[in-house]
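Reopening: structure tokens for the zinc ion complex, inputs below.
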Amino acid sequence: MTPVTIIIAVVLLGGSLIFFRSNSKQYHASRAAHHEQRSAEREKRKAKASSPEANPDGKTSTPDTGELTRVGKWWLLNPKSPFPLHIKARDEFVARELKATLDDSYSIYSSEAVRMVMEVMLANSIVCKEVEEYVKIYKSKLLAKLESLSSDPHLFTGTTGRDTRKIRREIIEETISAFDIQPYCKISDLLLGHKDNAEEADQYFKKKYGRKTAAFYLSKPQGLYHIPIDDPEREAFENLTTLHLAAAGRKADPFKILEALDMDEIRGLVKDLNFSKFKDKAEAINAVEPLPDIKDRLSEVVKYKEIFEILPPPVDSLISETIGNSGKSPFDYEAAKLVTHTYQKGGEAITEREEFTRRENESVKGWKVIASKNCCQHCYELSRKRFRKEDYPKTPVHIGCRCSVSLVY
Ligand SMILES: [Zn+2]
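Re-run output (same inputs, fresh job):
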């Protein structure tokens, strides 16, 4: 069996098992018991984390955002909210647990609420449709911007370590600050921490570079290659160079070339200079590599015409080097933050509207959106508009929106 067949077989088998299990009464009963236990744990935790500031008069006033509703393959958490949140969850118990946790979030400290929501989302692999939609649109905007800047293969995979990382960060923050919609979260963590599934990434790569090129590139580990002029793979390497997936000759990273040399060869490169004896190869490389004429010096020992360096995929390397390799994704926390705050703001908007309806009289001419000072251009422009009395504006305006509605007299 090919790996693909195995994957398909496993997916089919797994799917039918879940199908079988979800239909059995026993499964249903054990899920219900589990849910009850989780619900008791949540109550305990809620009591501990209860915030007197969030809840000054001791009354619990959780806005009614409506009953959990099935919409296609999604669960709609808050049908009464002006901003609906849909989630993908493995069953109704999981969806209910998330909704209950979000309802609790009104009466506990914000950071603790976000942590609790994140735990439920992570433990049950819950995906929020509105968060994914934002990420999809704005991540591709960010990647397009970064790709347009990556025509110099060493701008991002460069030799100066810390500096290129700083440059990347600046480019990313600058690009993000120009987005018209700015959800209340760390957008760079949200977008860069988001992981496309492997299949998606593979398809993207094939689509972008073509099947043949993708296969050749993926078969070559990153690093230096010695490819003489008559080598049958020469043409393929040259093709990668034009696509910025490889660097040829003098454009190859001098650091990597030095690593491939032995100590005597490195010493030979700088025999005319007054370097004291190098302790080891690492020290030698660090001393020699910054020399302004290092590329010329290297030409004495390497044939540049026959050297290629396989580079990391421009954008992927940029992302992994920017967020580091801690293995922990900052995406999960930011996504939980967006779900929590958008759910809360939606509930508050319902309460607010009820309040306004009670106070409404002839002197009320209409409505306006009050843009939160750390919201975005989109909301700022909306805040200059006046809404007629029968045209009550919807807030939150977007995922992670902090804006609210006010009366116009
Ligand atoms: Zn807003």
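DSSP finds 18 helices and ten strands in the chain. The first strand starts at residue 69 and ends at 71. Marking as resolved unless the reporter disagrees.
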